[in-house]
Design goal:
Distance between the termini: 35 Å
Structural class: alpha+beta
Largest sheet: 11 strands, antiparallel
Helix content: 10-25%
Order of helices and strands: HEEEEEEHEEEEEH
Number of helices: 3
Strand content: over 45%
Number of strands: 11
Radius of gyration: 16 Å
């Protein structure tokens, strides 16, 4: 039971610390570009999209969703952020490292970053995460960049999958998400 408490605390910490500006609106995940269905996971999605973003002389919009999947049976959770800018080709998201994107978007202390590998269209790195002064949890950080534009991209899907049981379970959860990604 202690392991599940640790996983639950980590998931709640990651959700409450997401670097998005507001609370978001809970939506059916089928309405988003984030797809994940697994029998033992409870999945929730939120919409943080903005219909208007004023950038000096240009206007744009953003399509931003999060997905949080938690499984007591698997002692695992996954948190994913999808952020895409909508508008002309002169508007793009600045590209930073996978490490920076995880740290900027989720409230976790990350260490022991492993070597990068590719799984489908995603780049993946092993990492150890600590949430709210809890014990370390084995995780996988992952991201997919969309639509290269000038010195940036039109969108990014970034997240992490963790398990208090084993990194293999975190990998299985992440691979299931990637297989369902369209």
């Amino acid at each position: 039971m202690r392991l599940w408490s640790m996983v639950l605390a980590a998931a709640i910490a990651a959700t409450s610390n997401a670097a998005i500006g507001d609370e978001g609106v809970e939506v059916d995940c089928k309405e988003t570009n984030l797809k994940f269905e697994a029998p033992s996971f409870k999945v929730t999605c939120k919409d943080y999209s903005r219909s208007t973003i004023n950038l000096s002389e240009i206007s744009a919009a953003s399509r931003t969703y999060t997905l949080l999947a938690m499984s007591e049976a698997e002692l695992a959770f996954m948190h994913v952020l999808s952020n895409h800018v909508l508008g002309g080709t002169r508007i793009y998201l600045k590209v930073s490292s996978l490490e920076a994107q995880i740290e900027d978007n989720f409230g976790a202390k990350l260490s022991n970053w492993g070597d990068e590998e590719d799984v489908g269209d995603y780049e993946v790195k092993h990492v150890t995460a600590v949430f709210k002064n809890d014990d370390p949890v084995e995780c996988l950080a992952f991201r997919k960049l969309a639509g290269r534009r000038a010195s940036g991209v039109s969108g990014v899907t970034v997240g992490f999958s963790c398990s208090a049981d084993s990194r293999d379970k975190a990998m299985a959860t992440m691979k299931s998400f990637i297989e369902q990604d369209d």
